[in-house]
Amino acid sequence: MKSCYLCGKLLTMIMTYKRIVTIVLAAFLLAACGNKEQQEQQLQERAAELCQYIPDHQLNSESKSFMTTDFYAVLDTMFNHLPEEEAMEHEWLYYFVTGNGGTIPDYEVAGVEETDDTHAVATIKVRQKWEDGSFAEDSDVEEHKLYMEKVNDEWLIADFDDHKINCIRYLANNRKNR
User: How many CB atoms are located within 10 Å of the residue 146 CB?
Assistant: First the structure.
């Protein structure tokens, strides 16, 4: 009789521990999901902030702290160290998101995908607006890719629409042809 009583008590204790473990695991999962959503929101907000430093017609020196060292170096070479007449022959360099029409880009982060712990890609929608804030009638919404890299625990622009590789190719060809 005593063994049945002890077995019953043991079974009750096991069931109680299972419930506790299940509750604790459920709490961890809920916390992890909430944390992941918060991280995604923060990453999306950071991408929106970084959009303000996408070079367009010029490379601003304050952009340096918002870009990876290698991306800024490539852009600095293209924007600031090529003869002006040579650089102006390549409009793709100067017009990242706008053309000659006197418009201002209006950025919207459509989504961000974290590809690994230190890399993410943001899909950016850009529409042109006039200086008075109204949207240009003939302006379509264009989609761009903003590549981000986490450096020293901070997300930075690592590339934009593959401009980095295009600039590197141009520089390599330019040096080879000299």
Answer: 22
Domain that holds residue 48: 41-177
Closest CA to 125 of 40, 47, 42: 47
**pTM of the predicted model as reported, rounded to 2 decimal places:** 0.75
Q: What's the total number of domains in the chain?
A: 1
Could you tell me the two tokens for 73? 């170096």
Q: Is residue 24 part of a domain?
A: no
Answer for the pair 148, 120: CB distance below 8 angstroms, yes or no: yes
CA–CA separation, 91 and 95 (whole Å): 6
CA separation (Å) from 59 to 25, 67, 79, 145, 163?
Answer: 50, 11, 7, 18, 13
The CA distance from 93 to 38, in Å, is 35
120-174 per-position pLDDT tens digit: 999 999 888 887 888 767 667 889 999 999 999 999 999 999 889 988 888 887 7
Classify residue 66: in a domain, yes or no.
yes
CATH number, residue 151? 3.10.450
